[in-house]
Amino acid sequence: MDQPLETYQDEIYLAGLGGVTPDLPTDLNELERAAAGRLTPGAYAYIAGSAGSGDTARENREAFRRWRIVPRMLTDVSSPSYASTVLGADLAVPFLLAPVGVLGVAHPGGEVAVARAAAACGVPIVLSTASSTAMEEVAEASGDGQRWFQLYWPQDRAVAASFLARAKAAGFTALVITLDTRMLAWRPRDLDQAFQPFLRGVGIQNYLTDPAFQESLAALASAGPAAPASAGPASADLAAPASADLAAAILQFTRIFGDRTLTWDDLSFARDHWDGPIVVKGILSVADAERAAGAGMDGIIVSNHGGRQVDGAIAALDALPAIVAAVGSRITVLFDSGIRGGSDMLKALALGARAVLIGRPYAFGLGMGGEDGVRHVLRALRNDFELTMRLSGYASLGELCPQSLVRAGPSS
Description:
alpha/beta, 11% strand
């Protein structure tokens, strides 16, 4: 007799007997279209937008279509288990929430709502440095939930060290260093809306609440008045502390965000200031994967930032197999960019990823339904993955391999 795993599908069908249908689409591909009419134009553009023409984001999705699942028949999937442990995180199914910044533009609950939903669903959250809520508040909302911290490495090393110390104290167990965003790309959707959240004081809350950053502001103030920042006012619930000059803080943030001088040698600084697992995000080449392994990193995330940084870049999924072949036996390889459903997860895992990260789907779920919207996305993805695995004949993650897939023919 089949053992129940995630029961979301059953809940939806049973609710339908009473005339109740889901508030949000159950096909996560449809979330973006549904969100277009429900989020503010600026918030929608920020979440949906990509670099340049959007070619990389489209290629991420096409890359999944180039691989097809070959289901196996008459295998025992009556008692499957898709649980695993990745860099200390216990995963009921192998996915985490990717770091997405400035979630306060999507919904007033922002990262707090996401943290609560993730904890309730047993899914680890990777909190962005660019969160619209200070990391300590997100950690409190997360409770016993699993949480990692993502670092956008600032030019001010004192601020970087302070971020890491705060994250460790707040119970974040792994560090994710994003390598591909030392500056923001040309993003037409944001430009057409003239919408840059950081200049409005949103997404810099970890800076505003940081002692080292406040010390740098005080030093600047004692040196003389700073030029005003060309920024709009922050919303009332995202305002800077009363003692801070928000315009000066925004200006200082723009000065130190993203260190363009970083090299592989600088990763030793992170190791000196973090005693847990360290993962570097944004790896797309075998050469860089080898450098990450040589630098003593515990893991890498194969990712092109969801197509938000380099227009015309290689699809993340196309980069995955060669990277796994090169370093998969030495360090943990995770995957990000383009996941929209259970079949996508299966394909990335079959090609060697230990787990995947999702970004835009939960951000759209947040924007349309707050905490409940995020829970919907997480439960839908989990149930879709479990069903796809069982229907494809796989009772465990260890059974997946490249031979679970074939390359699509020209007509696909």
